[in-house]
Amino acid sequence: LPSNFIDCLLADAFSRSRVLKQLYSDSSVYRDYDLVVVGHSLGGGCAQVLSLMLRPSFPSLLCFAYEPPVS
Question: What is the H or E stretch that residue 48 is in?
Fold first, then answer.
C-alpha cells in the first residue's frame, strides 16, 4: 500500500477518536490555533477530501494540496 493511503487511514482514526474535537474544545489551550491539512500527490487528494469532511466542524480550516490527482 502507498504511504498516502496509510495517512488517510490515520486521518480517519483521528476523526473517530475525536482527537481534533478535544484539541479545539473550549477548555483546550490549542483552541485558538488554526487547523491546516497538507498533502502532496495522492496525499493532496486525501487532504482535499478530508478538508471537505472536516469543514463543517472547523470552518477556519485551511487546506494546502500540492499536485493532487486530476481526472
Answer: helix 42-54
Residue bearing cell 487547523: 35
Tens-level pLDDT at each residue, the chain (71 residues): 555 666 666 666 666 667 777 777 888 888 888 889 999 999 999 899 888 888 887 888 999 999 998 75
Count Cβ atoms below 10 Å from residue 42 Cβ, excluding itself: 17
Cell 481526472 maps to which residue?
A: 71
pTM above 0.90, yes or no: no
What's the first-to-final CA gap in the chain, in angstroms?
Answer: 21
